[in-house]
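Lab notebook, bench 4. The sequencing result for the construct came back, and we need a structural model before the next group meeting so we can plan mutations. Quick request posted to the team channel:

Model the 3D structure of this chain.
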Amino acid sequence: MLNEDTQKTVAETEEITITGIGASPGICIGKAYMVDTEGVNVVKRYRIDNDDLVNEINRFKTAVKKAGDEFQAIIDSSRDKFNGHTPILETHQALLKDKMLFGRTIETIEKEQINAEWALKKVAGKLTTMFRQMDDPYLQERTVDVTQVAERILRSLVGADSVNIAEIDKRVILVAGDLTPAETSQINLERIKGFITDRGGMASHTGIIARTLGIPAVLGMGAATKTIQNDDLIIVDGLQGLVVIHPAEQTLVDYEDLRFRYEQFKAEIVRDSFCEAQTMDGIDIKIMGNIELPEEVVSVGDHGGDGIGLYRTEFQYMNRLDYPTEDELFDKYRDVVEIMAPKPVTIRTLDINGDKAIAGAREAVEINPALGLRGIRYCLQRPDIFTTQLRAILRAAAYGEVRLLLPMISCCAEIDETRRLMDQAAEDLAADGVKFNRDIKTGIMIEVPAAVIMADALAEKVDFFSIGTNDLIQYTLAIDRGNREVAYMYHPLHPAVLRMIKRVTNVAAKKEIEVYICGEMAGDLIHIPILLGLGFNELSMNPQAIPTVKCFIRTLNLDEAKAFLGEVFIQRSAEDIRQIIYERYGDRLAQMRITMSP
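Done. Here's the predicted structure in token form:
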């Protein structure tokens, strides 16, 4: 049955389906509301005389202050709505005064004697290019932050009105080139059904806020704003990353049915997400959450997570010229630990190479950063930076259960040196009379083939293994997952990858240490029977996947999963393995996936 929003005459226009990134799951159907962003993209360059340079710089500073005041007003009005998520907005507010953006714009105005608008566009352009060229997909998303903050300042400079989404007074779906976190935070859930944008992705702050609000969103559409017009009837499918424009009547009927089934399914699994993920033969599996930002800890709790299986700590090192202080790191870590207590929080130390960690660092540019100075290698070469982080982690460990996770480990010496630095940090903290906890479990990421081969020796030096399948697959198969030419070969079910993982779990069992998995493989239902059969009793994934994975595990039998491995390991290709998974578990997988196709 079509609701009042869709009981309209379907326009006699050809149905169009465009694809993007499903950043927030769900289905919504309604009329498009085009968010006007014109006025800030057309900027002209003109010369500023010497006598007017001070006035031009002051004009820029005034625009920055106005933008900052707008951010503060939005932050103040959003605290209750976001339940602790306002640091995303505070990050944008901090960017306003960042030396890389604020300072260099003023320098450009002075040196080149050009107007503030052009100087800002030039500086922002260079910063976004720098971020876009980085290897890490998450860091590439930070280009969006710089662009969004620059556009807000430009609005003030050119006198363009800011988008006021809070004043929209009808039930619509927002369509925009991009939406900033500040704009997204103004969404009234009684009015806005969902949104789509030309830019952005899963790791963008706008995507994170969409998931926090629980509304459907498809980002990275490319040219949606050129294809969709105001008041067009559209369908947003955040489950599959699709947008249907001018849907045919049967498409509307089908999607209304899909929306009803999804909402019903979501209600059921969310209701049960706080129950244990226990197999049919009575084995409890811990389902943890991966987080990028401290504020995402709320989402882990809301989705029934049993703790934090991977807290990536790189974000605090981004968008700044200097390194964060011990107190800055400690405050963020403690917040996460206290919110999750008594559940564990696994903090991964800095997993990034120097030029990515600090935008203004003068590190040498590496030809192949994936094989270069990154992760533990970088930290051990910069013990000053590493020790600061270790001290902050040990201090946070006094407020709940903390597990320390070391990335990119390939030999025993790296663990030995890290433990020495930890002991020294603990001694210094004790001498300073600072509250801390040295008695924390220390584990390593298994993500390079060398660690797999050396697993028996490494196991004697740590308390647990955590398999990072994202990099392990990349390094095992020699596949750059960001390279479109070879990305199709990147497959978690490749027999070589599964044999790598099996060796690690066998070693862990023999050495009697825990073994976890925190890569994206853990959040995909098709992999769950194999992972359980291999002996994992803790899986960590993006928070939104937790309820569905828990629900699926309750349909599985652990002994059956272990026996199934006999069939898996005689297969010779990823496709063969996928086929036998569907033959054995296809009916149960179908029940867990609410889509338009079987």
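The two ends are 22 Å apart (CA to CA).
Will bring this to the meeting.
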